[in-house]
Amino acid sequence: MAWDLESVIPSPSALPRRGTQWLCFPATKGGLSLFHELLEKQLIYSRYYLADAGKPGELRAAMDKMTRDMGHPDVLVYNASKFKTLHILDETAESISEDLLTNVGGALEAVKMALPAMKARNQGTILLTGGGLALHPNPGLGSLAIGKSGLRSLAAQLHDSLTGTGIRVATITVAGFVSKDSPTHHPDRIADLYWQLHSTPADELEFEVVV
Question: What are the residue ranges spanned by the domains of the chain?
Answer without folding.
Answer: 72-210
